[in-house]
């Protein structure tokens, strides 16, 4: 308790005034009035407090008035929906935190907790471009048709699996400088992941850069060219000599860096005993072998879009890298993601005045980031926000961040993620300070509560009572684990923690509309011929090519598209629908919970 001495003196003077007035009335014989004034005066003096409690902790969940910045026109399509509270949608829009950028977002929640529901909800509203990681194929099934036919966007689906349909994208096509090429080669080899053996990957990066440069100089798709050279009949010798014959200065320079001599000066017989050279070459072959399947070669044989297209007009790119094949396709996944993001950053930096004013904003959605791991995700979170790229990341627990990106990467991510959405955790262990539930409890803060005590001393006949203020967590780890599946806790910008309801796409009218638009057809016509290996090596067989006709389903049944008259009546702006008419959810949308949340949504 803290004494306000000014109020103390005023209280003292009031007490003296009451006593004096009562005494004067008594002396005048007005004793009933004197008694009444004395009682009233002492009641007033008693309730006139000259002390205030020092509330050192004032943790609380956000009140409706504190959410005004998140509830203003949430369905405009330029913000990210994060949930709902007090029967109102919440969205982070430009200007919500006094900044024109949205910042980054991360959802934490165990399997089947509703993370995918937020992805679908946002893709049905977001009007800008989107780069979507879809390892199950469910997100594109639910939203691709709507984004193409209702929102009017170009939709690209990249799928490296053999015998599945895919658009094409050459991740090296937009690399314009030697610095970009060597940087991409080094990033692909990832020497930092090899520990003490990093020197082999570092040396192999020079050979990979030479192959990429050779392909670009001659206008060949890089990965089919890589396939032809890595499996040359004469091995390293044949590949090196054929690259050297191209006569490009940088190709020869990188080859010399890899071999330690010019290829035409090499003693190839002695090179057979050079274990360092052979191990470096084998390191490249091992890393690149996953890029040489039929599906990958087809997907990378040309480009049906450019990365910069996402900045010039609304384009949605779905990366359908099947979860069952990620152990094989993860290197290509990182190559594609890194190529798209780095190209967009370079394009923005070369024309800041234009793209800062007229560039299309891009939402990067990384579902199951622990499985489909972008190795450079911490770097992206620290750099891309100011260039109109906003990341939405989805993981199952806080521990996955440290395990996948290390302690430094985890810290970088948490420091640069402006909005964190926590779905109820299964683990209620109060003693595990590194758990997600403990992080939520610590981040929500504490508040003061009255602690009342009643004591009776030994041999005493009277009870003594006491009241003091003590601290309590706003929400404990155990209480967080006991939340209903439909609830969430949101930490965003400078606002107090928000006790919210999760996003559920079937509550939007656009979800019902989207059911009428099937997955768009993918044009796999052979309008662009793939170069042959013979252009690199005359004796080598042609580049392996996918029989695109074989990729077509034998009895493809395409759902008829909605007619022009029906499309004209389709609502262009999704509105919140309290309860979907059909009461159905699409595949992969999770379980519905119709009960009312505690916050009254």
UniProtKB/TrEMBL annotation:
GO cellular component annotations of the record: plasma membrane
Keywords from the UniProt entry: Cell membrane, Membrane, Transmembrane, Transmembrane helix
Biased composition (Low complexity): 564-589
Cell location: Cell membrane
The keyword RNA-binding is assigned to this record: no
ATP-binding as UniProt keyword: no
Compositionally skewed regions (Basic and acidic residues) per UniProt: 590-601
Membrane topology: Multi-pass membrane protein
CDD domains assigned to the protein according to its UniProt record, in alphabetical order: TrwB_TraG_TraD_VirD4
Region (Disordered): 556-601
Source superkingdom: Bacteria
InterPro entries registered for this protein in UniProt: P-loop_NTPase, T4SS-coupling_protein, TraG/VirD4
Family named by the database record: Belongs to the VirD4/TraG family.
Name under which the protein is recorded: Type IV secretory pathway TraG/TraD family ATPase VirD4
Organism field: Deinococcus humi
